[in-house]
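The instructor's notes for this session suggest beginning with a concrete chain rather than abstract definitions. Hand out the sequence below and ask the class to guess, before any prediction is shown, which regions might be ordered.
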Amino acid sequence: GRRLIFMKKILYIMVGIVIICVITGLLVANAGYHRIDSGEGTIYGRLTKRDKDKVVVLVAGSGPTDMNGNSGTYDKRNDSLLMLSKELGREGISVFRYDKRTSGKSKNTFDITQIEFDDFVKDCTQVIRYLKDYGFDKVYIAGHSQGNQLYGINTIKSNQM
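After discussion, reveal the predicted structure:
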């Protein structure tokens, strides 16, 4: 009787602790991320806000390259976009960088079995809309490799938004 009641209380306490740990872990894992619902998945990005009116969007290059500039196909990290973001921030420039649909936190939210270049254009356009809604008057695009190819397309589209 009493021992069984005591064991049930201990079990409930342990389950409660596990639930709290899981929730806390999820909150910490997503802390600092901006989540943009694209209609096809979620784009995860980080904003370093320095200038209240304008922001530079850093777009990663070809392949499964994340917001930091690292490729999911290599074990080594170069953190090129992360370092660029930090330097621009030191100069007072706001920066938004995001995981492409093929990388980082965004990857598991999209169906990446059939991807076309236009999918990356749509994602970048969603990022621009999000940042304009967030309050930035001017959104600039800077990209590397494939990310640079989005520049002309999105400059035209962003002026139409």
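Then share the key points. The two ends are 69 Å apart (CA to CA). The chain has four helices and five strands.
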